Amino acid sequence: MNYIRHLAAFFWCVEQDDRLTPHHISLYLALFQRWNLNRFQNPISINRAEMLRMSKIGSVNTYSRCLKQLHQWKYIDYQPSHNPLKGSRVNMFIFDTTSEQVVIPLINISKQIKQETIEYNEPNQSQSKKMEQETRYGKQPESAAMQEKKPQPENPAGASAKSKIPPPEEHVKIYFLEKEFPEVEAERFFNYYESVGWKVGGRTRMKDWKAAARNWMLNARKYSPRQPLSPQDKSTEYKSDNGKNYAEPL
Questions:
Q1: Which end of the chain is flanked by fewer CB atoms within 10 Å, N or C?
Q2: Reduced to 3 states, what is the DSSP secondary structure of residue 243?
Q3: Which secondary-structure segment (H or E) carries 118?
Q4: Using CA of residue 13, residue 15, residue 16, residue 20, what is the dihedral sign?
Q5: Tell me: the pLDDT tens digits for 187-230?
Q6: β-strand 44-46 against 88-92: which pairing, if any?
Q7: The CATH number fitting domain 3-111, selected from 3.80.10, 2.20.28, 1.10.10, 3.40.50
Q8: Structural contact between residues 205 and 198, judged by C-beta atoms closer than 8 angstroms
Q9: Which sequence spans correspond to the domains of the chain?
Q10: Is 199 helix (H, G, I), strand (E, B) or coil?
């Protein structure tokens, strides 16, 4: 058995086989080291505690699963022992280019890769027939990506102004002037919601700033201070005229 050829062939399998995980690779290298100590004689007797320590696998369930899968995928020949006083046995296949045993896992990998290539590269019969008919009648076949419905963006370019939060301060002033409200009231509205992060009630993100502006205007009318009286109104505010003639005797 050639040490270098064996490891080179194994790592080629690792590169091609997507089923293998770092746990599988670490466990196989631990088995290979145990096989090396046994002078590459099959079978080798393994101890679970020793394999866990050498492979750095911390879970017994992961160790058992990986060992069975390596056997199932023809990387090793695992012979479990049901006797607690007797260790399990493992036959290591020789992954050497001069050996026929290397064909066992490589054939499985080749079949898997070939099957995946057919599934992804060859269209089914119905799709081929449809494409042929469309080409015959002058319609260019669409690709699979074009046939799929494209999701609509959440904020299209032509979205209304109410979706733009926060709005520009100039837009707020223009809107208040359109509603016959002074510019200073627009500044109060903008400064208040700018300070609270444009959240309604301090929690919910504002969705329509124009609706919030209309509510602001309603509250402004409701709580607006009473207009001061003119001098003429002040002079007549407490003046009473009840039609009495004080010149007449009682």
A1: C
A2: coil
A3: helix 103-121
A4: positive
A5: 998 998 888 888 887 788 888 889 888 988 888 877 666 555 45
A6: antiparallel
A7: 1.10.10
A8: yes
A9: 3-111, 161-222
A10: strand
User: What six digits make up the tokens of 109?
Assistant: 């990998």
Backbone torsions φ then ψ of 125, nearest 5 degrees? -65, -40
Alpha-carbon gap, residue 172 to 77, rounded angstroms = 77
Taken in order 170, 172, 174, 177, is the CA torsion positive or negative? negative
C-alpha 11/C-alpha 193 separation (Å) is 63
Q: Give 128-142 pLDDT, tens digit per residue.
A: 555 555 555 555 545
Our CA angle for 100, 103, 106, nearest 5°, is 160
* 241 phi-psi bin (left φ>0, alpha ψ -120 to 50, beta other): beta
Tokens of residue 86, six digits: 């007797």
